[in-house]
Design brief:
Order of helices and strands of chain A: EHHEEEEEEH
Number of helices of chain A: 3
CATH architecture of chain A: Roll
Radius of gyration of chain A: 15 Å
Oligomer: homotetramer
Number of domains of chain A: 1
Amino acid sequence: MAFTYPQKVLFKYCDPAGIVFFPRYFELINDCIETFFGEAIGVPFEELMKVGGVPTVEITATFKAPSRHGDRLLLSLSCRRIGRTSATLDIDAHCSEELRFRATSTIVHVDRSGRPEVWPARIKDKLQSHLNR
Amino acid sequence: MAFTYPQKVLFKYCDPAGIVFFPRYFELINDCIETFFGEAIGVPFEELMKVGGVPTVEITATFKAPSRHGDRLLLSLSCRRIGRTSATLDIDAHCSEELRFRATSTIVHVDRSGRPEVWPARIKDKLQSHLNR
Amino acid sequence: MAFTYPQKVLFKYCDPAGIVFFPRYFELINDCIETFFGEAIGVPFEELMKVGGVPTVEITATFKAPSRHGDRLLLSLSCRRIGRTSATLDIDAHCSEELRFRATSTIVHVDRSGRPEVWPARIKDKLQSHLNR
Amino acid sequence: MAFTYPQKVLFKYCDPAGIVFFPRYFELINDCIETFFGEAIGVPFEELMKVGGVPTVEITATFKAPSRHGDRLLLSLSCRRIGRTSATLDIDAHCSEELRFRATSTIVHVDRSGRPEVWPARIKDKLQSHLNR
């Protein structure tokens, strides 16, 4: 079951070529993961940050077609793999039927000092309900 | 021969955990590629953009260790592969001896309408002088 | 009649002090004006940009209290003054009852070449219905 | 005596109209103040942040002419007023002889808990040597 996150392409995301500046896509991806944790996992980032966090340790993205100002994107997030302290997430974005980008991000659950920490059961269960395979 | 690009980690790049927010790393990577084109290739982005551009079509990054406000990073860019219309660039960043991130980016040379276009010889020659293998 | 724009303070907006980095507030202000044009004026920025735009020529902001990650802000926009080719907008943001910032922005309606252009009647009428005095 | 800070307008600062997106100017202003503290005052932001900071409480900016990708700006910072715990800074930016923007920012020296704190003498002295009137 994928978590979906609709976002309109705002002016601030676009570059002089009139398309989304790719580092801004990574902001959108981070927003999507943040909203997934708040709404689907039930652990808002602002609470998670008080006791640690889920920094990104690896990310790869393929930009299939440009997105323009005003485009309505639908980001879709699901879990590819859930480890003891990490998780690999697949995020893609479509505009209508067209795939715009596809990204895979690995995040690690860490404590306040940045050391990897086993996922709490309540988070792991929710992640598992979003496995995509 | 690698192109090097020193950058101090400014306040604006850092998140509430006190480390570089990863989408900001992609801004730095873009700045590095832009400066490489201006200084090493001799074709400033602002001129390239008038007749097309070099959009990123794929990028992957591994964040090995966090960077903190005030850290002095040395980004290093070299070419892994030069195609007919594209190029794959390796960019890594160190702080002193410590590797902070390693990224690989594929850019495509396009015309004003976004169609892939063969690299001009003067650009291709310069890219070749930065091949890393 | 004010136009309201609720926004949660996302991780990306916050700095190492854990509060909103003030340049990010200006992004939120721009998003608010963009959404006001799309939803209240009925002229989406992405259409307005095809024939000109509404660049900001002056802006002043007072930050009364810091906003933290997770805070739910309510931005409120109204018109202070409507000129022949320009408009002055008041935007403030509250979290519950607390005022966080107050800004005043002057935008100018321009054509494609950047020259000031008289407001079209349909835009001026809608702006007038959001006058705050 | 003004502190000067040269900056080339990078691709990332520009919007679909091909000019600097105004919230990005505030990033540049923050970078300028940060560099002023590190180089002219001798107190790098990354050290100041460990014991407090200098948050912006008010800022006003007038954008006189647009800046384009590749423009070489010269930002110039001087002190308009130095208070017990605050300072008002004037920052303007020129490209060759043309004024692009003029901003006035009030910052407050705070301790770790965000309470205003009297300027240390070594900072106040340096600020005074940059008074513009």
